[in-house]
Amino acid sequence: MGQKIIGIDVGGTKVAGGLVDRKGRLVESQIVPTHADKGFDKSYAQVIHLIGRLLRAAGGKENVGGIGICAPGPLNPKTGVVLNPPNLPGWRNIELAKMVGKEFGLPARLENDANAAGLAEVLFGAAVGYKDVFYVTVSTGVGTGIIINRKIYHGKNGIAGEGGHVSIDYRSPYRCGCGTYGDIEALAAGPGMARRARVMLEQEHNLPSVLRELAHGRAEEISPLMIQQAARQGDRVAKAILDETGFLLGFWLAGMISLFDPEAIVIGGGVSHIGKPLFDKIRSTIPKHTINGFAAQTPVLPAKLRTNVGVYGAAAIFLPAGEEAES
Amino acid sequence: MGQKIIGIDVGGTKVAGGLVDRKGRLVESQIVPTHADKGFDKSYAQVIHLIGRLLRAAGGKENVGGIGICAPGPLNPKTGVVLNPPNLPGWRNIELAKMVGKEFGLPARLENDANAAGLAEVLFGAAVGYKDVFYVTVSTGVGTGIIINRKIYHGKNGIAGEGGHVSIDYRSPYRCGCGTYGDIEALAAGPGMARRARVMLEQEHNLPSVLRELAHGRAEEISPLMIQQAARQGDRVAKAILDETGFLLGFWLAGMISLFDPEAIVIGGGVSHIGKPLFDKIRSTIPKHTINGFAAQTPVLPAKLRTNVGVYGAAAIFLPAGEEAES
Q1: Does residue B154 surpass a pLDDT of 60?
Q2: What's the rounded Cα separation, in Å, for the pair B184 and B165?
Q3: Which of A167, A300, B100, B287 could form a disulfide with B295 if both were Cys (CB 3.0 to 4.6 A apart)?
Q4: ∠ at Cα A298 (A296, A302), nearest 5°?
């Protein structure tokens, strides 16, 4: 089939879109601002505008097999409904897949960010050649996607795969927005990393650290990027925080391996760009904390798709291995 | 098809076997001692002896469609090899499925206890009518089985579904045999319950509890059964231990629901016989500790199959919905 797929990645600040061919090549790519602060009508118009442009770039709708859309959760991929994402104000119970499909007379599907990114890594990225993969994206939150037999596992209500909200510390003082305590998102995502650095510096006033200078003496302004910079300069506090982040992620992933016995784990998102020191610690921690005797041989791969992962992911839900995705 | 399936449940003390028809009815059931202490040859002979008896009861091998065997892990259901179960001394890397199949000229398959029990609950027990189920058995350990689309999820090496070794307390002083700390098996299975009661009584010497009498003053002899008895008599310590067990299991299951968004959870095993006080606490804890907004509506069901669950489970791996199990 010569038809291409339109992939649309709706974010809080921009809507990215592209045309992906059946071989998984991104042959066209465009971006428009979301104007999320102007409410649903305005930001939805931006989505429609972008799809229109991509349809023209494709030479008309007869050359397009479908429109895949990914957006931040909560949403229901089975019904195509966006529930109420915190960073898209005014988007409440929007039947996005149905509306877009009707607007253009083309099949349209909706998927959440992390699931789509995980599928994209399996079809086009770091996990090509694998079928059963546990995907993780660590940035301001921890998103995960469960890919089984090259398909996204959705569960009953379409909201499976929320591994970021699995706790490894039921006695933790840190409560997540989801209600639980000590889940890996609360402990190891960007804000959790920054908090751990802050607590360490506040508890030990005399501990020397370039983080104090980088944050201009204001511990509350420490960011994951500062921690990464400081660690590169050899700062001990920053290195300890990165090391602990790797331990926490590795400990949590050990449990995921006990459950899923996956062929591979893929880790993406901003925090994963820390690279080798983080991955080394994750890889050395995992085998010590799982019953799975093959854990040391389970590849823990850095994600390959970066800026366009959302567009690839949105398109992926329409490509061959995604066709029979559970509904 | 009028053919029946032979189900064999190999345990440390007895081998239970039965004939199950295609409608899931147990039409014949027999038990022989395992003689595990006499080594592999002797206990394997018991398995073969029992299968022979069941074949005769079926009226010959032309009336039997296959032999399903479940055994304690670790084992590999994909290759049919028993690795080295702690309670079957001398069973090391035994190609059990192949050996049994050859012995009788019939197809034979191997599955681990918890997976088989979970599938049996879906096909014949508490979860009939559901496709995607998370099964838990709590006794001296915590075993789990992940059933997706009425099939056991095996993972790459055949050892997926080990949810009992997922930790909810990475800072726990309690180390599990698997190497990790604070997994739900270490915290909430029978020995974990008994340990928590013992610690409570040892730390507070003046705390009154009938558990002291039941254990004849020897805190190290407190058993889960004693805790259950004492709780029925209104004992506060015992009730607190059961309550905490329900909380721990509920907290852990909340994470499983975030991951799997299952249609139902089924809980079996000796500890589950505590019944209502335990299930009430589990059910009230789950929705507070998951991002899944449907968690309060996810049924948490007591297992239905009891004494013969192993035989049903072993047969289940040959019955229709099990036929296409991933390999």
Answers
A1: yes
A2: 6
A3: B287
A4: 115
Looking at residue A326, its pLDDT comes to: 38
User: What is the ipTM, given to two decimal places?
Assistant: 0.93
Q: Which of A99-103, A313-317, B86-90, B234-238 has the lowest mean pLDDT?
A: B86-90
**CB-side neighbour CA atoms (13 Å) of B314:** 32
Say if residue A100 is exposed, middle or buried (CB neighbours under 10 Å; 0-12, 13-18, 19+): buried
- In this predicted structure, what is the pLDDT of residue A324? 40
* Residue among A156, A162, A168 whose CB faces B262 most closely: A156
**Two structure tokens written together for A251:** 């400990």
Are B179 and A146 an interchain contact pair (Cβ–Cβ within 8 Å)? no
Does position B151 have pLDDT exceeding 60, yes or no? yes
How many beta carbons lie within 10 A of that of residue A98, not counting itself?
Answer: 14
- Measured between CA atoms, how close is B254 to chain A, in angstroms? 8
Residues in B touching A258 (Cβ below 8 Å): 162-163, 165-166, 178
* B77 CB-near residues (< 8 Å, 6+ apart): B109, B110, B111, B112, B115, B152, B154, B158, B317
The sign of the torsion formed by the CA atoms of A237, A242, A245, A247 equals negative
Mean pLDDT for chain B overall = 94
pTM: 0.94
Contact A153 B155 (CB under 8 A): no
pLDDT in tens, B208-232: 999 999 999 898 999 999 999 999 9
Residue of chain B nearest A180, judged by CA positions = B289
**Between A and B, how many CB-CB pairs are < 8 A?**
152
Asked if B290's CB is within 8 angstroms of A160's CB, the reply is no
CA dihedral B252, B256, B257, B262 (to 10 degrees): -130
Other CB atoms within 10 Å distance of the CB of residue B218: 9
